[in-house]
Records
---
Amino acid sequence: MQDNPLVSIIINNYNYDRFLQSAIDSALNQNYPNIEVILVDDGSTDNSRQIIASYGNKIIPVLKENGGQASAFNAGFAASRGEIICFLDSDDLFFPEKIAEVVDVFARHPDIGWCFHHLRLVDTNYNILPQEHDYNSSGEYDMRSHLKKGKLRNRLPCIPATSGLCFKSSLLQLILPMPENIVILSDNYLKFVALGLTKGFCLCKELSFQIIHGNNACTRRRDRNQVIGKIHILTAYWLRIKLPNLDKFSNNVLAEGINYSWRAKNIDDSAKLVLKKYLSTVNMADKINIYLRAIYNYLKK
């Protein structure tokens, strides 16, 4: 990696005009100077595009029809030029030192492909919300052998949402474009595929604010079980397509999706179709194991 590499900050936005300016400013006001800020607007119908236009050439706008988060990731990455890619949800904020810290990690660990870090959860008034983090386990992590055995739970100190994800562009070229029908929480697909392809670094610091406002994609939602169930089922299916050697892990992700769907007592039609399609590709022994794991997780929790 070059000294002072270009870092692309990709902000994905849909109808979050009330947060958007703060997110853009947090990206532009980094201590690290060599950045480009790419704003992907996914067909917003609020005041987002007027806000984007007000920044002129300070940011790179990508204006597209509504297609969901996965399509926004694909479009943002296609427009990027950086050696390092950092994602930012438009309702979140980066700390000013975020990019400098991440660049330092990649410089000190040249063989890694990803860097994940903690998020600080706050409400809309920036009051800190209670949560537990492991702050003493920063270091390199290689999850590939664990994923082949179907295991990930409690083996990684941070598996953050979008605004805590950073990648080398060379790794993302192996992941993106991603399937665009994973329309919600596409960051799960990014994380799991990255973990299955190469080792990375967990930086156990809070370097982004995640703002909890009642309309988040998943965090602290009232319908969280239904949303997570659908996310896991869709993610499991595409993991099986992308990384068939990690079939034990994708089976476990599917079982978790079934578990959450049972808890929600609801599964939408699209998730039902994908679940049926996935199960049609596995043998009877695997199908039994999937449902046994789902039952175990359901009873355990």
---
Amino acid sequence: MKRIMLYNHGGCGNRGCEAIVRSTAALFGGQAAVSLASDAPKEDRTQGPLGVRRIVCSEIAPYSIRRFINSIGFRMGIPREQEVARKHSTITDLGKRSDVCLSIGGDTYCYNHQEHLQVVNGRLRRAGKPLVLWGCSVEPDIIKGETLEDLRAYDLIVARESITEEAMRAAGLPVVRWCDPAFTMVKEELPLPQLWREGRTVGLNVSPLILSCAKDGEQTLHAFAALVRHILDTSDCAVALIPHVFWARDNDMDALERIKAQFADEPRVFLLPGAQTLTAPQIKGYISRLAALVTARTHASVAGYSTAVPTLVIGYSVKARGIARDLFGEEAGHLIPVQELSGEAELIAAYDAMTARADEERAFLRSRMPAYTAGREEIVSAVMKLAK
């Protein structure tokens, strides 16, 4: 059996990262043994079996002899490239024992230059290991300079939406397109909470990240709260506040608790009970039973789309735009870039328009999903050919 290493995984505190690992491991199950190099292995192990054979820490332990030696070497003036390579040597060690290495793309390359990936990828290539950038979105205008050089290290790039695919192809990179693997993750349905109204519960996800990308974070948070008030005033629906990321540096609970505080005496507005202990499939199970979803997190939207829930995304980057464009043929009506959100009136109008076509959108998503997620056998085959 072939061996696959997944690396560049930030940890399952982000349930979207968890969803990618679970769905990828399931995708290759039976054909390869999948191992995971993680920035947060302890965090990952709290989420139960992920479908991977083993989990190792992406960095050498902070108080280990290897870290001590690396620290001494740094003070003695070893080159920066060697320092970074030693710090992440657990990835290269695992990669050298693997037949193909998949860097979990996500939106990694949408931010700063990824020095550690450039170093790790260089070491793996020199060891003769094929590299795949898996399920990525990249802003077209940053595919240049050091980022472009690093992207050229990959033998195959699997873009999860067409905007990235087209930009990669224009740059002469070896790219194919397939949906975000989390679209294929199987949901797990738990009993509904007492406050949940079957068929009449709207989900809301707000993240600190989206607020930081807005023109005015406080005004944007106010717009979300105004939407909740609008739902209460115009329907008998409940509103479930659904977090999807729980990292200390970027915790959805921070924003959602501020919204709940404005409706402290309103039982129809509630935080999803025990959300921090739920797995990605379990959160997807709750999302699948919503009447509608308004979300800032991409992988919450993936859970909604893939279970035919009418979904309005408040996005901030190419990934949300590209997925909406590929699913529906257009972004309008399905996505509001947070940088362009004018205020509560625009958000409420977009929500009302979505719910007015809810039946039509559910039917469309049910019919669209088989074609949208098709091609998994071809993608698996392309990766496994590299492993040979």
